[in-house]
Design a protein that fits this description.
Length: 275
Protein backbone atom coordinates (compact mmCIF):
# COMPACT_ATOMS: atom_id res chain seq x y z
CA UNK A 1 0.00 0.00 0.00
CA UNK A 2 1.19 3.54 -0.74
CA UNK A 3 0.28 5.00 2.68
CA UNK A 4 0.62 3.56 6.16
CA UNK A 5 -0.54 4.56 9.62
CA UNK A 6 2.75 4.75 11.48
CA UNK A 7 1.33 5.78 14.85
CA UNK A 8 -1.07 2.91 15.10
CA UNK A 9 -1.44 -0.82 15.77
CA UNK A 10 -1.61 -2.84 12.55
CA UNK A 11 -1.36 -6.28 14.09
CA UNK A 12 2.20 -6.75 12.84
CA UNK A 13 5.63 -5.15 13.13
CA UNK A 14 5.68 -2.24 10.74
CA UNK A 15 7.58 0.73 12.25
CA UNK A 16 11.15 1.25 11.04
CA UNK A 17 13.90 3.88 11.48
CA UNK A 18 12.94 5.59 8.23
CA UNK A 19 9.48 6.36 9.67
CA UNK A 20 10.98 8.06 12.71
CA UNK A 21 13.60 9.90 10.65
CA UNK A 22 10.95 11.16 8.25
CA UNK A 23 8.92 12.63 11.10
CA UNK A 24 12.00 14.21 12.68
CA UNK A 25 13.17 15.71 9.38
CA UNK A 26 9.70 17.09 8.75
CA UNK A 27 9.70 18.88 12.11
CA UNK A 28 13.33 19.91 12.47
CA UNK A 29 14.35 20.09 8.83
CA UNK A 30 16.39 17.73 6.67
CA UNK A 31 19.72 19.41 7.42
CA UNK A 32 22.17 18.54 10.19
CA UNK A 33 22.23 20.03 13.67
CA UNK A 34 23.66 19.65 17.14
CA UNK A 35 20.91 19.87 19.76
CA UNK A 36 20.94 21.83 23.02
CA UNK A 37 21.40 18.80 25.25
CA UNK A 38 24.18 17.53 27.50
CA UNK A 39 27.49 19.24 26.75
CA UNK A 40 26.38 20.02 23.18
CA UNK A 41 29.29 17.86 21.99
CA UNK A 42 31.77 20.43 23.30
CA UNK A 43 35.40 19.68 22.48
CA UNK A 44 38.33 19.71 24.88
CA UNK A 45 41.91 19.47 23.65
CA UNK A 46 43.58 17.14 26.15
CA UNK A 47 47.04 16.99 24.58
CA UNK A 48 48.89 17.30 21.28
CA UNK A 49 47.33 14.03 20.11
CA UNK A 50 44.10 13.69 22.08
CA UNK A 51 40.73 15.45 22.21
CA UNK A 52 37.55 14.69 24.10
CA UNK A 53 34.03 15.28 22.77
CA UNK A 54 31.41 15.83 25.45
CA UNK A 55 27.93 14.41 25.71
CA UNK A 56 25.05 15.54 23.57
CA UNK A 57 22.81 14.80 20.62
CA UNK A 58 22.82 15.54 16.92
CA UNK A 59 20.44 15.00 14.04
CA UNK A 60 21.56 14.03 10.53
CA UNK A 61 18.84 14.24 7.89
CA UNK A 62 16.27 13.30 10.54
CA UNK A 63 18.39 10.51 12.06
CA UNK A 64 19.02 11.05 15.76
CA UNK A 65 22.44 10.23 17.24
CA UNK A 66 23.02 10.42 21.00
CA UNK A 67 26.37 10.51 22.80
CA UNK A 68 25.63 9.69 26.43
CA UNK A 69 29.27 9.52 27.52
CA UNK A 70 32.30 11.65 26.58
CA UNK A 71 34.37 10.27 23.70
CA UNK A 72 38.18 10.48 23.52
CA UNK A 73 39.70 10.57 20.05
CA UNK A 74 43.33 10.35 18.96
CA UNK A 75 44.94 12.96 16.73
CA UNK A 76 47.98 11.84 14.74
CA UNK A 77 51.01 13.89 15.77
CA UNK A 78 51.97 16.77 13.53
CA UNK A 79 55.44 17.32 12.04
CA UNK A 80 57.80 20.23 12.45
CA UNK A 81 57.47 22.78 9.67
CA UNK A 82 54.23 21.24 8.36
CA UNK A 83 50.60 22.29 8.65
CA UNK A 84 47.51 20.11 8.53
CA UNK A 85 43.74 20.24 9.00
CA UNK A 86 42.00 17.26 10.58
CA UNK A 87 38.25 16.92 10.98
CA UNK A 88 36.23 15.54 13.88
CA UNK A 89 33.04 14.12 12.42
CA UNK A 90 30.08 11.88 13.04
CA UNK A 91 30.08 9.07 10.50
CA UNK A 92 26.93 7.13 9.63
CA UNK A 93 27.37 3.66 8.09
CA UNK A 94 25.01 0.99 6.84
CA UNK A 95 26.22 -2.51 6.09
CA UNK A 96 25.01 -4.74 3.28
CA UNK A 97 22.99 -6.59 5.93
CA UNK A 98 21.15 -3.35 6.73
CA UNK A 99 22.84 -2.73 10.10
CA UNK A 100 23.13 0.99 10.78
CA UNK A 101 25.50 2.76 13.16
CA UNK A 102 27.05 6.15 13.89
CA UNK A 103 30.41 6.94 15.50
CA UNK A 104 32.65 9.92 16.15
CA UNK A 105 35.81 9.71 14.03
CA UNK A 106 38.93 11.67 13.13
CA UNK A 107 39.53 12.32 9.43
CA UNK A 108 43.20 13.04 8.91
CA UNK A 109 44.18 15.78 6.49
CA UNK A 110 47.22 16.10 4.26
CA UNK A 111 50.28 17.86 5.66
CA UNK A 112 51.71 20.76 3.67
CA UNK A 113 54.19 23.60 4.01
CA UNK A 114 51.60 25.95 2.52
CA UNK A 115 47.99 26.56 3.42
CA UNK A 116 46.28 23.37 4.58
CA UNK A 117 42.84 22.33 3.34
CA UNK A 118 40.24 20.14 4.95
CA UNK A 119 40.32 16.45 4.08
CA UNK A 120 37.62 15.07 1.81
CA UNK A 121 34.82 12.95 3.21
CA UNK A 122 31.83 11.00 1.95
CA UNK A 123 28.30 12.35 2.07
CA UNK A 124 25.01 10.96 0.82
CA UNK A 125 21.28 10.67 1.26
CA UNK A 126 20.70 8.45 4.28
CA UNK A 127 17.04 7.94 3.45
CA UNK A 128 18.13 7.04 -0.06
CA UNK A 129 19.93 3.97 1.31
CA UNK A 130 23.48 5.35 1.11
CA UNK A 131 26.09 3.25 2.90
CA UNK A 132 28.14 6.16 4.35
CA UNK A 133 27.45 9.73 5.31
CA UNK A 134 29.68 12.13 7.24
CA UNK A 135 28.72 15.17 9.33
CA UNK A 136 31.76 17.36 10.14
CA UNK A 137 31.78 18.73 13.68
CA UNK A 138 35.16 20.41 14.19
CA UNK A 139 38.23 21.42 12.22
CA UNK A 140 41.46 20.74 14.12
CA UNK A 141 44.30 22.91 12.78
CA UNK A 142 47.82 21.65 13.38
CA UNK A 143 50.88 23.85 12.99
CA UNK A 144 53.96 21.72 13.46
CA UNK A 145 53.33 19.66 16.57
CA UNK A 146 50.95 22.26 18.04
CA UNK A 147 47.21 21.67 18.02
CA UNK A 148 45.36 24.93 17.39
CA UNK A 149 41.95 26.05 18.55
CA UNK A 150 39.19 23.74 17.23
CA UNK A 151 36.76 25.41 14.83
CA UNK A 152 33.08 24.36 15.15
CA UNK A 153 31.50 23.42 11.81
CA UNK A 154 27.98 22.61 12.92
CA UNK A 155 24.77 24.54 13.49
CA UNK A 156 23.06 24.39 16.88
CA UNK A 157 19.31 23.87 16.70
CA UNK A 158 17.72 25.88 19.49
CA UNK A 159 14.68 24.44 21.30
CA UNK A 160 11.25 25.72 20.31
CA UNK A 161 10.94 27.60 23.60
CA UNK A 162 13.87 29.87 22.70
CA UNK A 163 12.43 30.44 19.22
CA UNK A 164 9.10 31.46 20.74
CA UNK A 165 10.84 33.74 23.24
CA UNK A 166 12.68 35.47 20.40
CA UNK A 167 9.36 36.09 18.65
CA UNK A 168 7.53 37.34 21.74
CA UNK A 169 9.93 39.86 23.21
CA UNK A 170 8.58 42.87 25.08
CA UNK A 171 9.79 46.13 26.58
CA UNK A 172 9.11 49.81 27.26
CA UNK A 173 8.68 52.29 24.43
CA UNK A 174 11.33 54.99 24.24
CA UNK A 175 9.55 58.34 24.52
CA UNK A 176 10.42 61.13 22.13
CA UNK A 177 11.19 63.94 24.57
CA UNK A 178 10.21 67.52 23.82
CA UNK A 179 6.44 67.41 23.61
CA UNK A 180 6.08 63.90 25.04
CA UNK A 181 8.08 63.38 28.21
CA UNK A 182 6.15 60.97 30.41
CA UNK A 183 3.79 58.03 30.44
CA UNK A 184 3.83 54.27 30.57
CA UNK A 185 3.78 52.49 27.21
CA UNK A 186 4.87 48.97 26.31
CA UNK A 187 5.54 46.95 23.18
CA UNK A 188 5.31 43.21 22.64
CA UNK A 189 6.55 41.34 19.60
CA UNK A 190 4.36 38.54 18.30
CA UNK A 191 5.85 37.04 15.17
CA UNK A 192 6.33 39.85 12.65
CA UNK A 193 4.07 42.31 14.49
CA UNK A 194 4.65 44.78 17.30
CA UNK A 195 1.65 45.34 19.57
CA UNK A 196 1.66 48.70 21.36
CA UNK A 197 -0.30 49.58 24.48
CA UNK A 198 -0.22 52.30 27.10
CA UNK A 199 -0.65 56.02 27.61
CA UNK A 200 1.89 58.76 26.90
CA UNK A 201 1.48 62.33 28.17
CA UNK A 202 2.24 65.70 26.65
CA UNK A 203 4.49 68.32 28.16
CA UNK A 204 2.30 71.29 29.13
CA UNK A 205 5.15 73.77 28.51
CA UNK A 206 5.51 72.94 24.84
CA UNK A 207 2.94 73.01 22.05
CA UNK A 208 3.36 70.30 19.40
CA UNK A 209 4.66 70.82 15.90
CA UNK A 210 4.46 68.63 12.83
CA UNK A 211 7.30 66.10 12.94
CA UNK A 212 7.61 66.05 16.74
CA UNK A 213 8.82 62.64 17.87
CA UNK A 214 6.22 60.84 19.99
CA UNK A 215 8.17 57.62 20.63
CA UNK A 216 10.60 55.18 19.08
CA UNK A 217 9.97 51.56 18.19
CA UNK A 218 12.50 48.88 19.24
CA UNK A 219 12.91 47.87 15.60
CA UNK A 220 12.11 49.64 12.31
CA UNK A 221 8.70 49.34 10.67
CA UNK A 222 8.73 47.12 7.57
CA UNK A 223 6.10 49.24 5.84
CA UNK A 224 4.66 52.67 6.61
CA UNK A 225 2.82 52.79 9.91
CA UNK A 226 0.07 55.37 10.37
CA UNK A 227 -2.62 55.59 13.02
CA UNK A 228 -5.21 57.98 14.45
CA UNK A 229 -5.51 57.70 18.21
CA UNK A 230 -7.66 59.37 20.80
CA UNK A 231 -6.75 61.56 23.72
CA UNK A 232 -8.47 62.47 26.98
CA UNK A 233 -9.51 65.71 25.27
CA UNK A 234 -12.73 64.62 23.62
CA UNK A 235 -12.46 67.06 20.72
CA UNK A 236 -8.92 66.21 19.75
CA UNK A 237 -7.17 63.19 18.21
CA UNK A 238 -3.61 62.55 17.19
CA UNK A 239 -2.30 61.29 13.85
CA UNK A 240 1.06 59.55 14.08
CA UNK A 241 3.29 57.99 11.48
CA UNK A 242 6.54 56.05 11.01
CA UNK A 243 8.08 55.73 7.56
CA UNK A 244 9.04 52.33 6.19
CA UNK A 245 12.49 51.43 7.49
CA UNK A 246 12.24 53.89 10.40
CA UNK A 247 11.65 53.26 14.09
CA UNK A 248 10.71 56.90 14.82
CA UNK A 249 6.99 57.62 15.26
CA UNK A 250 6.23 61.29 14.63
CA UNK A 251 3.26 63.64 14.85
CA UNK A 252 1.76 64.20 11.41
CA UNK A 253 1.19 67.78 10.23
CA UNK A 254 -2.38 69.07 10.47
CA UNK A 255 -2.89 67.75 13.95
CA UNK A 256 -0.95 70.43 15.78
CA UNK A 257 -2.38 72.99 18.18
CA UNK A 258 -2.74 73.84 21.84
CA UNK A 259 -3.21 71.02 24.33
CA UNK A 260 -3.84 71.06 28.03
CA UNK A 261 -1.11 70.11 30.47
CA UNK A 262 -0.70 66.33 30.65
CA UNK A 263 -2.85 65.50 27.64
CA UNK A 264 -3.05 61.72 27.54
CA UNK A 265 -2.51 59.95 24.22
CA UNK A 266 -3.88 56.40 24.14
CA UNK A 267 -1.87 53.74 22.29
CA UNK A 268 -4.04 50.76 23.13
CA UNK A 269 -4.09 47.97 20.54
CA UNK A 270 -1.88 49.54 17.86
CA UNK A 271 -0.09 47.08 15.58
CA UNK A 272 3.09 47.74 13.59
CA UNK A 273 4.33 45.35 10.89
CA UNK A 274 8.07 44.79 11.30
CA UNK A 275 8.52 41.76 9.03
Amino acid sequence: MSCELVTGHLGEKHINPEDDAGLTAGILGADEYVLVTGDQLAINVVSANSVTIGTGDLVMQGYHVTCQKPTTLTITNGAQGMKRNDLIACRYTKTTAGIQSADLVVIKGTATTGTPVDPTYTTGDIRGNVSTHTMPLYRIPLDGITVGTPVPLFNVLKPMQSVWDSLTQSGDLSLGGGWVTSGVARWKRVGDMLILAGIIKSNYAVNPSAGDVLFRLPTPAKSRFRAIVGTNMWWQSIVMEAAAGSNTVKLVGGETGTYNAGTEIVLSGLSVYIG
